[in-house]
Amino acid sequence: INSNGSDLQQGILILVIAVYMVGLLYKAFNFARNLRSIEKCINQNPKVKDGRFWLVELIDKVPPFSFFNYIFITNSCQRLPEDDLKWIKDHEKVHAQQFHSLDVLFIEFISIIFWFNPLMIYLKKSIQEIHEYIVDEKIVGIGNGKKGYAELLLKLASDVKGFNLSA
User: Is 106 in contact with 127 (CB distance < 8 Å)?
Assistant: First the structure.
């Protein structure tokens, strides 16, 4: 009787480890695929050097985002008024200057390891919101255009999703 119980426990342990490893590999694969997508965007789209930043012009309809010193802006944003485009660039530059990409990568690594924890979704969303609050506060503090900046944010708000690794 004791060996059957031990076999059952071993079987359950092996099953739990197998399920954990499948989830871990799945999350790691998605993470690598997202990194590869960002790399493709960098390599396959026109880039312009802007100080220590690279502005990457995207054709796809995604919201502006940054990843380290790369700032990704779509063609449609390029057609915005000069002041609006400057706000967008400044917004993304603050993300890069504050190393928000490192925070995002760290949270992604943690969420790969703890993929089974539903609180990871909340943590990732909270970090992204905090980043946005920090950046918006800095951008609004630069000038007197609070109303204009708020109007720009409303104008840019859409259902279009960006990359998971964007900051």
Answer: no
User: Residue 80 gets which letter from DSSP?
Assistant: S
Q: Name the pairing type of β-strands 65-67 and 70-74.
A: antiparallel
Q: Are strands 53-58 and 70-74 parallel, antiparallel or unpaired?
A: parallel
Residue that the structure tokens 């951008």 belong to: 139
Global pTM reads 0.81
Q: Dump pLDDT digits (tens) for 62-120.
A: 889 999 999 999 888 877 888 888 889 999 999 999 999 999 999 999 999 999 999 99
DSSP designation for 74: E
Q: How many CA atoms lie within 13 A of 29 on its CB side?
A: 6
The count of other CB atoms within 10 Å of the CB of residue 100 is 24
DSSP alpha helix (H) spans, 45-67: none
